[in-house]
Input
Amino acid sequence: MTNKQINTINGYFNDKHMDRKQLESVLDFDNLTIDEKCIPEIMALLKSSEDEVGEDIIKSYVRFVKSRSGSGEITWEEFMARLNDLVLEYSSFGIRVQRFSKPAYWEIFFNHFETTDYEDGDVKLTFNQEYYEKTERENAYEYLSEHDIDTDSEKSNFISQIATKWDGLSEDEKDIMISALDAIYSTHYVDKSRVDIMKSSINKITMTNADLVPEVGLRDYGIEFLDGDFISLRF
Output
């Protein structure tokens, strides 16, 4: 199923002003089908956009929504399993941590987490920043090689080689070339911001359904602490 088809069907339900609960009420997750009243109109929309139409598209859409559904209270173990499924090194979103209070609001994005286990069975979860220098440098060298820049010799002068090709590069290629050189030669600052969460201090964890944007699929996780404090995470 294509993203275009997903967005077409999402648009159909948006035009009906359906919220997530109403949407799921017309989907049959067990049999992978949609309420019969909706199918003719959806088929008409898909035909009008010249997409391949058939039962498989309906099944694929219901399967897609099902994979992003499931909300409510979850355990610490379920929460950690979802964190461990992330590949933050290649994520465009990272982990967003928010806190709301009467006098203030803050929001921080992290690209790394780690846990510390204690002898008494408690666990500390830490969100912080990690600069993926090795990966960025590998990607930079790979990109330069793809554009016939000699990266094998220790005496290779990347800048002079790029200069000879510069006029023939597109604007996007020029931007990527500059980013590649930055990854290879620059010293990068790593943000020292962090958030620590002790497992023993948590009262409950809840999560929302994941969004239905094909390329995204983020969920919100609410952590309520024993002292009544609360923070929200999105990943």
Remarks:
- The two ends are 24 Å apart (CA to CA).
- Residues 38 and 159 are 59 Å apart (CA to CA).
